[in-house]
Amino acid sequence: NCVACGRNFSQISALSNHVRTCRFQKKRTASALEGAKEIYRNKKNRVATNQTQTCPGESSQQADVTTRAAIATVGTPNAMDIGSVDDDSLSLAKRRPRRENRPLPKRFQNEQPVALASLPPAAAETLQASNDSTLSTPVVNLERRTLTSPLNKFGLFRRYFSASFPAHDPDTEIQIEELSEVSQYNNSNTLSTSFFEPYPNRSAFLLGEWYWNSGVQKTKEGFCKLINIISGSDFNPADVKKVPWDSLNRRLGESVDSEDVWIDEPDAGWKETSITLPIPFHKNMLNPGLQQYTFPPFCHRSIVSVLKEKMSNQRDFQQFHLEPYELRWQRKDTPDTESTRVHGELYTSAAFLEAHEEIQSAVGEPGCSLPRVLIGLMFGSDGTQLTSFGSTSLWPCYMYFGNESKYRRCRPTCNLCNHIAYFQKLPPEFKDFAELHWGKKGPSDSFMTHCQREFLHAQWKELLDDEFLEAYEHGIVIECCDGKKRRFYLRIFAYTADYPEKILLSSIRNMGNCPCPRCLIPKHRTHQLATRQDQRQRKSLARVDNLQYRVKTSSAHEIIYQKNCSVDSVAIQRLLKPESLTPNENAFSCKLSKFGFNLFSIFLVDFMHEFELGVWKKVFIHLLRILDCVDGAVNELDQRFRSVPTFGRDSIRRFANSVSELKRLGARDYENILQCSIPVFEGLLPKEHNDNLMDVLFTLAHWHALAKLRQHTDLSLDILESITVQLGRLLRKFQEKTCPAYNTRELQRELTSRARKAASKLSTNKTTSKNTSSLPTKTASTYPKKEIKGRLPKTLNLNTYKDHSLGDYVDSIRRNGTVDSYSTESMELEHRSPKSRYLRTSRKHFEKQLGCIERCQARIRRIRQKLDKTKQTREELVHEKGPESWASAYHIGKTQNHPVDLRVFAQEKRHDPAAKDFMKNLKAHLLPRIHSRIQVDPHKFGFENADAAEMAQNMVLIKDNRVYSHKLARFYHTTYDVRRSEDVINPRTSHCNVMLLCKLATSEGNSLDTSVTHPFLYARVIGIYHVNVVYTGPGMKGYESMHFDFLHIRWFQLEAIKSQGRHRVRGWASLRLDRLSFPPMAEKSSFAFVDPALVLRSCHLIPAFSSGKRYSDGIGLSALSRDNSDWKMYYVNRFADRDMTMRYHWGLGIGHMYSHN
């Protein structure tokens, strides 16, 4: 019966279904949950107050130490390549342990992610202090000290440089669900009865919210939402009959200048500004001199007003970091060693801490003793097409706050991206204006480019207004939603853009002599990636916005605007060409250089465009050119890519039918191609060149995985630095040794593209020539095409900015946090917002309409937040969704709809090797698990003596002689960056392979060969079951059935490689993936049963295509294991995702606690 409502049920399944929807049970669970939370908060406060000692092995006087020497304590990247595998003559049972299932030792348990430990009270008198003279500068008459927080169970702790711990701690507001990437719950909330202004009533607000914030395209989900609204008890159709929707929507989208009483909080509305610029026409033109031109209105918002709006938002303010800290990691197995710095968020980065310290140590404003808060601004801009057909485009500028966690900031559903401007390009009318003063030939490309630069920086000068400069220098006092006043200082830390926009904003030439916006290394030396000279010159030749730079640009500006010289005159070239500068007035330098701001420091690396769509795309295209020289290699490549299995929910997706055609491939497609390229390219070239290619592909994939990590430590950055050196060396070797061996030419698609561009250029030149108004109109196809003389020779070019930029990643991560925090991927996702809003506009002068729609949606979200009073309990969401994914190790259904009668099964599968001794082996597997469960609570099962030696298999009774089959199993694991993730296993698909921890068998006393250094075991799941078991052995008084889940698996065996006469495991040192094969089915230990709790996570296995299939006729030996499509060999893809890569860097994944031993 149900303990909450008392209803009786005859079957357990009916009771389970009822419990999920029982409202009495939900109320009871919610009440218990609230009580438990209150007890937990009180307990955390008591622990935080009592725990004031420093961390083990931590010196409070060392605020920043070098931890490169600590690599020896966790092992080098090659630590797992040492050791040998026994001779192949040994049996499989001797080479692998017996798979007995025993209780999982605590040190191997899959620990759930937790937030950082709570801080001690801010007023505690026993705070730890450091005598570091660099941090003892008095600020507001308070001594600044080094304060260390308690450790959490993963060894993470915070180090503050302040007079006391901050009272506002966003990390304590993080719930365990927010650390889970399994499912993001959108909690529905109960509305209060307060007013709904500007909506006249509740019903009108609900309809308005559905219209604006439920998407443009009507979906089944949106339809269900509408049905729930109009069928709800709180919806009254009469309330919406006379609502003036047009005027109401106009009020929602109006600027804040309209004095509506319902706008009771700071609101960052949009405004339009007309910009007038002097256009320089040089002395040889028809009308020389400066001519004024007024551009169309520029739509933008005030940056300071956006900050005020943010500080008034209760929900965002709760997780807004006002005080930065240094995040550190103390390994539990080495408590006497120095802790390691953790890199991830901007507000824990070295750049943020330095800027914070500068503000705190500066002389304060007269008479002001308010707390000083640093606001980290992160800008990004990128043009996007608003329609699939046509040329309608938008150039939005986005702004993020670096004080917010990147895990929330980079998630579009959190709505933390602020649209602050829609940049204008030169309008078509401007070209007509320029032709009037230029003369017959019309304006040159260099002139138009210069005007576009000047126009863009003029728009940025409007954004960097006097209010912004005041807040930058003196700060701005804002009363936050917690009722406290603080003084906020603005600082710019990053500007995310692709290369064409970077050169516009940094005022350098496109692919000039010095193409990098961060340094002055010449273009002809950019191929020297990570050499010693290259590493030295990146620092010695760094670009700086100093007096010398400003004198050069101002002199060039004077030559153009006062002496009426052309923008590409000899005088300009002589002055600016050596450093690839441009003669325009940079807005950032003009406005912020007086405060010591270096404009070149904000243009950080761009992983997506520089590597995935840059270096790797270029290498992959050249590999296609090489394969084009080998008969049938390209077709074989496409066939292999089609045979690569998918992995995860979206980690590795299905490849296109013809990857070599490169049709409609995005960055994530090139990423997947790289992750799966090693088995696909293997064997397509002769051995000498194949070995070089395998080295390059392995190193590219390794560098890609490390550079894209969402959490780094000093140790992992040291490895990335060494891999960068290795990558540069191998790319140069591949260019010198392998590429010259093939006479590579353009691909057919490149030839077609070149011909199409030539025809288009010829058509444009003819249609724009003078005195053609009386000629008949011709299409592009009527003009004679330019003769294309076959496919041109092509070589691999390493002298590009994108190759050069790979050397900046380690320093960028050390100073500004990991690359996902300032990646252009976030902008690409945010482009969906203006594209969807564009569909609501009239398509004319749509920038202003987009701003109004943005305000409508933002203000409705704010109304919703004010009306939210109570949240739906998460326990209810859990019942609706399934298991508590953030707490469970796995989830297998409890339904018994698919029973398997063991007697019938044994008869039908009597000739199947996978079913041999099925019952006997199953009971042998269950016996130790039964003993372990009884040991936990012997009295519960009425067992007097829990002695395993007296327990026998024949006393294990399987209830009804049945096991129950399931289609899916969900496994939950903690990732390297202490997040919760999910893998789904389905034996009937390619998602059927799992990995287990090899150390577990050793710790349990199994016969494991200790010379094997590989840490994991691999298996294919061929069945997912649960069984109800009764043990009737001696000492058992009660006969209550016990529920056990188990997996029926087929083991893989690890293939070794011969090196210097010894068998060695593949790995980082060999630059090869681990290779697996199936042992003969006749071996007794080929098949086994496994407790699902022992599964670490799923793994991605790619066939070794060069070795071929096991059965050429497609007929296998075991229908149960579905071996008819087996390959002879498989590769373990350790680059399938970032968490998988870090599992092979043993001991470096903070969330992988099993490796911290």
TrEMBL record:
MF GO annotations: zinc ion binding
InterPro entries attached to this UniProt entry: FHA_dom, Plavaka, Znf_C2H2_type
Compositional bias of kind Low complexity: 760-779
Coiled-coil segments on the chain, per record: 853-880
Annotated region (Disordered), positions in chain: 78-107, 747-780
Keywords tagged on the record: Coiled coil, Metal-binding, Zinc, Zinc-finger
Residues annotated as domain C2H2-type: 1-27
Pfam family, one: Plavaka
Domain FHA: 890-963
Record carries keyword Cell division: no
Protein name: C2H2-type domain-containing protein
Species the sequence originates in: Hypholoma sublateritium (strain FD-334 SS-4)
